[in-house]
Model the fold of this input.
Amino acid sequence: MLMQLTSSNGHAGCLSRCDQRFLKVQKACPGNFEICAPCTSFYAERSRKSLWYQEEMETMRLSSFYRNVSTLPKSEAELAAAASRAAQVCGAQFAAIQLSVPGQPELLAVGTFEPDLVPETAEAALKEFLRTQISLLDPSPKAGDLRTFPVGERNFPFWRLRAPRSITIIPISIQSWLNGRGAEAKIKQEAGWLALGGDHEQDVRQGILGLALAQRFSELGEIAQLESIIAQRGQFLSIASHDLKTPLTAIYGILQLQERVLRQKKDEPEGEQIARQQSFLKMVIRQVERLNELIDGLLNVSRIQNGRFVVEPSEVDVASILKESSSQRMNIIAAEAGVSLKLESPPILTAWVDPVRFEELVTNLIMNGIRFSPEGGSVWVKLAESSGAFRLSVRDQGPAVPLEDRERIFHPFERAQRTARMGGMGLGLFISKQIAQLHGGNVMLVESIPGKGNVFEAYFPIKTVTSLSA
Done:
């Protein structure tokens, strides 16, 4: 006997059977039968409305995500909040997001669809599990690739409810500007991943929503990079206007003083006049040299960013270049700053380097040491050969470099949060690192201890036989 069900569309006859079939009420449905045309139309319309409602809800959740995640997360707490929203948008049990955007701290955070689904004590285990699994996948996925792998309760012993059955990984990639160049030098690089975990197999709609979220993080990463470039340009204008104006002001003042002295002391002995004029001229020359160095630094940064910064190695005596640089200008500058310059070098050290660029690196590193060392302090410069390479180390007695600045100081126009007694545009370490890297070496901060100072070291292979450009 058939169960009597009330018609939701008013259709009589076979409606009870159709409703029973639709609702899968097996006891009242003996045998197979066809659903009539009116019922078929009714249930199709109800399915369309259900699908429309689902799409509307997904659109609303996605719009809410876009409104609330409008900038690239800069802390783990912000990223965890974004991950929770991502889980809600996709209907996943959890979402994990890892971001490694250039110029931003690397972050990994987990968010869940429901609060406290993952105990705080288990978050570290989940993150480590995801890192391990993702490291086993294709190391260079294409943008838009979805990779799903099955999991089970054994992978999630800490899970409070039903454990996820699958995890879908969606890569996040961004368009980067190579060395700060224009649009013609944009390259695509990995910037992290989005992981979605659920207690059912990943469906197409969840994948599409996941791709939309990954695209959102890609856009935010590119925006963050552009903001960083704009901030650098603003910083450059501020620093350049100040540092270029300082020597010009000094030159103007010296020339005014010289003109006044010549007017007021016409009867002064010729010998004293000449001595005073020579002193003034030396001061003018020093300021002109400083202007020249600042302009050279700006030109070098421009060349690096446009791929026209070239090194032309040849076989030279680097010990001789170091001694000449130190004995001529560096000793004078150190004496004027009240700093003692101490040099330790072998008599001869032959290597395959660009002599002009190497002298530039020597000047930059020594000037950096003088700039931050206190008056009465010392700067030690050491050149030594070791295992087919040579190292130039410069030790100063300045304040230690904060941990958060130890990578940033090698970027253009960046200076550490420590006091320098002499001005600078924040280009020396950046240019020096580029010079060393083009020779197959590097420049690093190898030691920074409060109260003891810092050691910057340049490493060069002794043999490099190719001309290279940035």
